[in-house]
């Protein structure tokens, strides 16, 4: 079904608004995927904090114009699905990478982060980035480590004295 001009303008505006807020973008070729698998991919994307859209290449080029993802214009060749990471930089990459493991028909063609076009092979690096919660947990561990080591150092002379007293006690009881 052909889109009317108003529908095309609305679609371009929607994708442009999403691209302006997104952390990263992934372009993947979906040739050979059934409608059921595409529906499953969209459901995983919704659950994973990613925005996926199948768009005509000419409309995709217009939609990313003026955003940091304009560098992806050359990747819009053939039937492609455009994915944006909305919650954390690796969300769309994780969804597409996990889905492409099960479905070989989905092939990543381009990845973009912070206005830089990366090769499709970098999807694994982007997908392996920690989520916001994981990054905060790592940061808290790094912040907490010096304090806990300091407390352990302060506590050690008292613990060592207690061990020496216990050893002397055991030695006297054995004698």
From TrEMBL:
Transmembrane segments: none annotated. The keyword Transferase does not apply. The keyword RNA-binding applies. Pfam families: Ribosomal_L10. GO terms for cellular component: large ribosomal subunit. Signal peptide: none annotated. One of its GO terms (molecular function) is structural constituent of ribosome. Keywords: Ribonucleoprotein, Ribosomal protein, RNA-binding, rRNA-binding. PROSITE patterns: RIBOSOMAL_L10 (PS01109). It comes from the Bacteria. GO terms for biological process: translation. Part of the ribosomal stalk of the 50S ribosomal subunit. The N-terminus interacts with L11 and the large rRNA to form the base of the stalk. The C-terminus forms an elongated spine to which L12 dimers bind in a sequential fashion forming a multimeric L10(L12)X complex. Belongs to the universal ribosomal protein uL10 family. Forms part of the ribosomal stalk, playing a central role in the interaction of the ribosome with GTP-bound translation factors. This is Large ribosomal subunit protein uL10. The gene is rplJ.
